[in-house]
């Protein structure tokens, strides 16, 4: 019975490590912790969302937000490509 329990614990630990690596491998590859990466990605997401709204408004009212979305996307591209 002890052998079965040890084997079961080993499988559980491997599964836990695999799940953990799902959340940590990519952030680690860009030199960030999970939390740091979360906030960076969340900030990019908000910028994209706001740019999308500006572009949508521009579609209906061409005189508004003429360069907002494109400028923001260019700035985000520069920021993203300058990262690790």
Structure description:
By secondary structure, the chain is mainly α. The chain has one domain. The protein is built from 3 helices and no strands. Helix 2 packs antiparallel against helix 3. The radius of gyration is 22 Å and the shape is elongated. It starts with a helix and ends with a helix. The relative contact order is 0.08.
Outline the fold blueprint.
Layout lengths: L1 H28 L4 H27 L7 H14 L3
Helix pairs in contact: 2-3
Name some characteristics of this structure.
single chain; 84 residues; mainly alpha; 3 helices
Q: Which range best describes the helical content: under 10%, 10-25%, 25-40%, 40-55%, 55-70% or over 70%?
A: over 70%
* Number of separate domains: 1
Give the oligomer, counting copies of the same chain as homo and different chains as hetero.
single chain
| CA-atom Rg in angstroms | 22 Å
Main sheet specs: none
Which term fits the overall shape?
elongated
Give a brief description:
The protein has one domain (2-81).
């Amino acid at each position: 019975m002890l052998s079965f329990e040890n084997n079961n614990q080993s499988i559980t630990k491997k599964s836990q490590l695999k799940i953990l690596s799902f959340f940590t491998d990519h952030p680690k590859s860009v030199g960030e912790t999970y939390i740091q990466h979360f906030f960076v990605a969340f900030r990019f997401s908000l910028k994209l969302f706001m740019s999308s709204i500006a572009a949508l408004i521009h579609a209906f009212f061409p005189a508004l937000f003429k360069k907002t979305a494109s400028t923001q996307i260019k700035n985000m591209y520069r920021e993203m490509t300058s990262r690790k």
